[in-house]
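Exercise 7. Predict the structure of Periplasmic binding protein domain-containing protein from Paractinoplanes toevensis.
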Amino acid sequence: MTALAMLGACGGADSSTTTPAESGKSQNSALSAEVEAARAEVTTFATPTAGFDASTMRGKTVYYIPITLKAESFQIVSKSLSEAFQGVGVTVQACDGGANPSTAAACLNQALAAHAAGVIADALPVGLAANAFAALRTAKIPVLIVNQLRPAGQTDDKLLAYEPGNAIQMQNMAAKWIAADSGGSAKILTQEFTDSPNTIAYLEDHAFKTLQSACGGCQNTVNKVSSANFSLIPSSTSSALLRNPDTNYLWTEFDTILQPTMAGVQQAGFLSKVKGVSTNGLLGGLQLLRAKNYLYADVAAHYNFQAWANADSIMRMALGLDVPADTAIPLRVFDRTNIDQVKNLDAAGEQSGEWFGPTTYKDVYTKLWSGA
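Solution. The predicted structure, encoded as tokens:
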């Protein structure tokens, strides 16, 4: 339930009355407070409480297979997995799924042939390479699927588990940021990424409903884009803006399409007319924020923490242990009010996880894996 919905649910016997204007101010105040809290450093992490002895994992190999290794977020996770596993002597073998069924299947078959201790499949739908996933199950090689919504009726077991990540939470927070920043009256163009049922669902089944609840006066126009038509995104964006000349917020679903979207904004002559909003919180986006160039907010996912949490889960699966249910991956809102708090706005800072605050979770996981 959103902050606005919770306010609407509160009530009691009181002779006082609240005008619609007063109610709106109260709701916007609560929403602004929620967004402000999301701007703060992340200092608490949802780590497991039960430790285990990871020493028997030494010398083994875990495969990391993202939908594509060309995306910066997956590169961060891949390197962070190597960092996490180094202390327990596990080798990470990254294989690019290539956003292609045959390429993804080849990666999964490679893990099968190598007798991998486990596979982490990132944003890789089972249906993309169903036979290869089935072969891993037959061979009793555990698979952890991350950044994918758990299918209806699917239950985790020792050989297949899901960690959905925080894409829904990121998109919901982007909607709330727009609602709070606009005072509930934004005219939005949303770049919906149609590459998979999940990327569509993040917006249509979740974030757009959040926007409607939090921002009843907002107008939202959707422009559907995909990586398959990457080169067409600038012209598509420009055309959508020209058809909707009152647009004052442009919501890009992911940083992956931020640059071509911005190119379209420039083509249409809207660079000074719209406030850019995106999610992922990758280096390029935060550099635009720092430079006060187009982007006003970027909701960031903590990919370094994700990698450590994924490493923990796949080792538990490999050892026949229960996996923590849906580990919460932190997010942080970066906008023009707090971007100067980021000290190392470079690739090393992005990789380390320090943009989010203390990286104490690394010590926590290291201790957990020692059996403590």
